[in-house]
Amino acid sequence: MKSFLSNFSLTLVLALVFSLLLPWWSIMLAAFLSGAIVRLRKASAFVVPFLAIAVFWIVYAWLLSSANDFILAEKIAVLLPLGGNAVLLILVTGIVGGLAAGIAGLFGNQCRALFSQSDQ
Question: Domain span at residue 65?
Fold first, then answer.
Protein backbone atom coordinates (compact mmCIF):
# COMPACT_ATOMS: atom_id res chain seq x y z
CA MET A 1 0.00 0.00 0.00
CA LYS A 2 2.89 2.33 0.74
CA SER A 3 4.30 1.91 -2.77
CA PHE A 4 0.89 2.73 -4.26
CA LEU A 5 0.69 6.02 -2.39
CA SER A 6 4.30 6.93 -3.03
CA ASN A 7 3.96 6.24 -6.76
CA PHE A 8 0.66 8.12 -6.89
CA SER A 9 2.05 11.17 -5.09
CA LEU A 10 5.35 11.12 -7.00
CA THR A 11 3.48 10.98 -10.29
CA LEU A 12 1.27 13.90 -9.27
CA VAL A 13 4.17 16.06 -8.07
CA LEU A 14 6.29 15.36 -11.14
CA ALA A 15 3.34 15.97 -13.46
CA LEU A 16 2.58 19.26 -11.77
CA VAL A 17 6.18 20.46 -11.98
CA PHE A 18 6.73 19.20 -15.53
CA SER A 19 3.44 20.65 -16.78
CA LEU A 20 4.68 24.12 -15.83
CA LEU A 21 7.68 23.74 -18.11
CA LEU A 22 6.82 21.20 -20.81
CA PRO A 23 3.87 20.42 -23.14
CA TRP A 24 1.08 17.93 -22.50
CA TRP A 25 3.30 14.88 -22.94
CA SER A 26 5.15 15.77 -19.73
CA ILE A 27 2.63 13.61 -17.88
CA MET A 28 4.07 10.61 -19.69
CA LEU A 29 7.55 11.57 -18.58
CA ALA A 30 6.33 11.93 -14.99
CA ALA A 31 4.60 8.54 -15.08
CA PHE A 32 7.65 6.89 -16.65
CA LEU A 33 10.00 8.30 -14.02
CA SER A 34 7.72 7.38 -11.13
CA GLY A 35 7.31 3.89 -12.56
CA ALA A 36 11.08 3.55 -12.85
CA ILE A 37 11.69 4.84 -9.31
CA VAL A 38 8.89 3.18 -7.32
CA ARG A 39 8.36 -0.50 -8.00
CA LEU A 40 4.81 -1.71 -8.50
CA ARG A 41 3.56 -5.19 -9.27
CA LYS A 42 1.15 -6.56 -11.85
CA ALA A 43 -1.75 -4.34 -12.91
CA SER A 44 -0.97 -1.63 -10.36
CA ALA A 45 1.97 -0.55 -12.54
CA PHE A 46 -0.67 0.67 -15.02
CA VAL A 47 -3.55 1.59 -12.72
CA VAL A 48 -1.74 3.85 -10.25
CA PRO A 49 -0.26 6.29 -12.85
CA PHE A 50 -3.55 6.11 -14.75
CA LEU A 51 -5.52 7.23 -11.70
CA ALA A 52 -2.97 9.87 -10.70
CA ILE A 53 -2.98 11.63 -14.06
CA ALA A 54 -6.70 11.12 -14.64
CA VAL A 55 -7.42 12.87 -11.35
CA PHE A 56 -4.85 15.57 -12.14
CA TRP A 57 -6.27 16.30 -15.60
CA ILE A 58 -9.90 16.17 -14.47
CA VAL A 59 -9.26 18.63 -11.64
CA TYR A 60 -7.12 20.87 -13.85
CA ALA A 61 -9.65 20.85 -16.70
CA TRP A 62 -12.46 21.55 -14.24
CA LEU A 63 -10.59 24.52 -12.79
CA LEU A 64 -9.77 25.94 -16.22
CA SER A 65 -13.30 25.42 -17.52
CA SER A 66 -15.06 26.80 -14.48
CA ALA A 67 -13.18 30.08 -14.91
CA ASN A 68 -15.23 30.78 -18.06
CA ASP A 69 -18.46 29.00 -17.03
CA PHE A 70 -17.66 25.98 -19.25
CA ILE A 71 -18.36 27.95 -22.44
CA LEU A 72 -15.31 26.68 -24.35
CA ALA A 73 -15.75 23.13 -23.06
CA GLU A 74 -19.35 23.08 -24.26
CA LYS A 75 -18.30 24.32 -27.71
CA ILE A 76 -15.62 21.64 -27.98
CA ALA A 77 -18.08 19.01 -26.75
CA VAL A 78 -20.36 19.98 -29.64
CA LEU A 79 -17.55 19.30 -32.10
CA LEU A 80 -17.03 15.85 -30.62
CA PRO A 81 -19.94 13.41 -30.42
CA LEU A 82 -20.65 14.33 -26.80
CA GLY A 83 -23.82 16.35 -27.31
CA GLY A 84 -22.38 19.53 -25.86
CA ASN A 85 -21.87 17.97 -22.43
CA ALA A 86 -18.88 19.72 -20.84
CA VAL A 87 -18.66 17.33 -17.88
CA LEU A 88 -18.43 14.35 -20.22
CA LEU A 89 -15.68 16.14 -22.15
CA ILE A 90 -13.73 16.65 -18.93
CA LEU A 91 -14.11 12.95 -18.06
CA VAL A 92 -12.91 11.92 -21.54
CA THR A 93 -9.96 14.27 -21.11
CA GLY A 94 -9.04 12.55 -17.86
CA ILE A 95 -9.33 9.10 -19.43
CA VAL A 96 -7.11 10.04 -22.38
CA GLY A 97 -4.45 11.51 -20.08
CA GLY A 98 -4.74 8.51 -17.79
CA LEU A 99 -4.24 6.06 -20.64
CA ALA A 100 -1.12 7.88 -21.80
CA ALA A 101 0.28 7.97 -18.27
CA GLY A 102 -0.66 4.36 -17.51
CA ILE A 103 1.19 3.09 -20.56
CA ALA A 104 4.22 5.25 -19.74
CA GLY A 105 4.17 4.10 -16.11
CA LEU A 106 4.01 0.48 -17.20
CA PHE A 107 6.94 1.08 -19.54
CA GLY A 108 8.94 2.71 -16.74
CA ASN A 109 8.20 -0.23 -14.47
CA GLN A 110 9.32 -2.68 -17.15
CA CYS A 111 12.52 -0.72 -17.78
CA ARG A 112 13.25 -0.81 -14.06
CA ALA A 113 12.76 -4.57 -14.02
CA LEU A 114 14.93 -5.00 -17.11
CA PHE A 115 17.85 -2.98 -15.79
CA SER A 116 17.67 -4.34 -12.25
CA GLN A 117 17.69 -7.88 -13.67
CA SER A 118 20.76 -7.20 -15.83
CA ASP A 119 22.70 -5.80 -12.84
CA GLN A 120 22.44 -9.05 -10.88
Answer: 2-119
